Amino acid sequence: MRGPGTTADDTPARAFAALVDQVQACRRCPRMDERARVLSAANGREGARVLFVAEAPGRLGAERTRVPLQGDQTGRNFEALLASIGLDRAEVFITNAVLCNPQDAFGRNSPPTREEVARCARHLESTLDVIAPEVVVTLGRVALEALRHIEDHAFTLALDVGQRREWAGRVLIPMYHPGARARVHRPLERQLEDFRELARVLGRTLQHSV
Predict the structure, then answer these.
(1) What is the homologous superfamily of the domain 12-202 according to CATH?
(2) Which among 148, 162, 123, 106 is positioned nearest to 27, based on CA atoms?
(3) What confidence tier does 209 reach under pLDDT thresholds 50, 70, 90?
(4) 40 has pLDDT over 80
(5) Each residue of 10-28: pLDDT tens digit?
(6) Would you list the DSSP string of 32-93?
(7) Euclidean distance between the first and the last CA atom of the chain, given in angstroms as a whole number
(8) Which of 51, 109, 172, 177 could bond to 167 as cystine, CB 3.0-4.6 Å?
(9) What percent of the chain is predicted at pLDDT more than 90?
(10) For helices 188-202 and 73-83, what crossing angle results, to 10°?
(11) For the chain, what percentages of helix, strand and coil (3-state, to nearest 5) are there?
């Protein structure tokens, strides 16, 4: 699973820099033309053991800060969940199924279309190649579905949430998105348990709580 623009001889830093250049030059989605391309060193470090995939940058969050899952309530929820198992951003890599903020005609956050997710999947595949995480955590249905463009699977959020699964030679843990609306379907205590499962996969001793 090697993405465009990467070779076996590339160092991770050089390969990641090339990927960032590709993403910044991408103009494949017309309604994203003026949006920020949220992929840079601010997403995390090469070689991170865990890579999180969310849905898309939020208008009040990553579209403004250029950092995924930061700057809005969703970002604060995510950071609290990380802290609950003693992780912080410096230890992980965070990206999105779609790297630009999709907006409707009124400038509000809008779900990415299937076509937009499919177009951005090549960037996600390249990111996985370069970062080479041991564990992939999807945050929400869109992120879980996006992985199917890289290597097909039959997992669903309803049946597989919080469970460790094997996907593309890695451990996959599907989780709900950390936005407030997701807590209607997955209350905070259940989300905390999902993160505790991630801690168990990583072999971490739990010493933190929200």
Answers:
(1) Uracil-DNA glycosylase-like domain (3.40.470.10)
(2) 123
(3) very low
(4) yes
(5) 588 999 999 999 999 999 9
(6) GTTS----SGGGB-TT-SEEEEES---TTTHHHHSSTT-SSHHHHHHHHHHHTTT--GGGEE
(7) 37
(8) 172
(9) 87
(10) 50
(11) 40, 15, 45
